[in-house]
Amino acid sequence: MYTVKKLADLAGVSTRALRYYHQIGLLKPAAVGENGYRYYDDDTAVRLQQILFYREMEISLSEIRDILEQPDFDLLGALGAHKTMLESKKQRIDQLLNTVEYTMNYLEGKLPMNENDIFGGFSEDEQKTYADEARQRWDSTLVDGSQKRWASYPAEKKKVIMAEANAIYKDIYANRHQGHDSQKIQHLVGDWHRNLRYFYEPAIGTLRGLGQMYCDDSRFRANFEKFSLDFPEFLRAAIEHYCDQAIA
C-alpha cells in the first residue's frame, strides 16, 4: 500500500493533486484509515499512471474520468496507444533536436544553409496537426476545404508548392534590411499571399491572424527563429503593412 506522500513522490505529482483527484472522483484511494489517511494499492497506482499519460496528451480531467469509467475500457490497449504516441513524440523531438543542432552549426559558420535541414521536423503530419487545431480556432469549413484541396494535389505538385513557400520566406529574410514596408518585401508578401491560395482563399483578417500566429504560436515561432530571433516580428509587421495597404 502507498500513502499519499509515497505515491505522490513516485509519480512526481503533488499530494494536493492526489487529494483533488479523489475529490472529483478521478482517483479514489483503495482505503481510508480511521485517522482519515488515504492509502493506495497497485491498481490505483496503475490508474494514476493512465491519468498522467492522458494529461500528457492534454486531455481534460473530466474527459479522462469519462474514458477510464467506460465499461469496455481496455487497459492493455490504452497502454499500446500510449506507447505509440510516445514513440512518435520521441521521433519528433529527435528530429527537432537534429534541426536545432544543424542551425547552431550554421550560425557558427560550420555548415552551409540548407532549407531542407532548416525546415526539418515540419512535415505534412505536422501541417495536419495545425489544421486540426485551426478547426477548433477558426472556420472548420474553411479548414476542411483547405485539407481537401491539398489532398487533391499529386505528390510532385506538393513538393513544388512547399519549395516555393520556403523560397519566399528565404527571400524575405535575405531582403529584410530594406524594411518591412519596402516595395521588395511587400512584393514578396504578395507572393506569400498567392502561395496560400494553393490551400484556400485567405481573407485579409486571416492573413493578419497568420502573421500574429507566426509570433505567438511556439512551433511557428521556433521555425522562423531559425533565421533570426526577430524574424517572426519582422514577418508580422510586413504582413500587417500588406493588409493595411490592401484595404486602404
Unreliable parts: 117-122
- The end-to-end distance, rounded to whole angstroms, is 71 Å
Please write the string of helix (H) and strand (E) elements. Answer: EHHEEHHHHHHHHHHH
Assign a percent range to the helix content: over 70%
User: Helical segment tally?
Assistant: 13
Largest sheet: 3 strands, antiparallel
* Structural shape: elongated
What is the arithmetic mean of pLDDT? 81
Radius of gyration using CA atoms only: 24 Å
What's the total count of β strands? 3
- Approximate strand percentage: under 5%
Structural class: mainly alpha
Oligomer: single chain
The side-by-side strand order for the widest beta sheet comes to 1-3-2
Describe the 3D structure:
The chain has about 250 residues and is mainly α. Helices cover about 70% and strands about 5% of the residues. The protein contains 13 helices and three strands. The chain has helices at about 5-10, 15-25, 40-55, 60-70, 75-105, 115-120, 125-135, 140-150, 155-175, 185-195, 205-215, 220-225, 230-245; strands at about 1-5, 30, 40. Strands 1-3-2 form a three-stranded antiparallel sheet. A hairpin with a 5-residue loop joins strand 2 (about 30) and strand 3 (about 40). Helix 3 (about 40-55) crosses helix 4 and helix 7 packs antiparallel against helix 8 (about 140-150). The longest helix is centred in the middle third of the chain and has 33 residues, at about 75-105. Residues about 115-120 have low confidence and may be disordered.
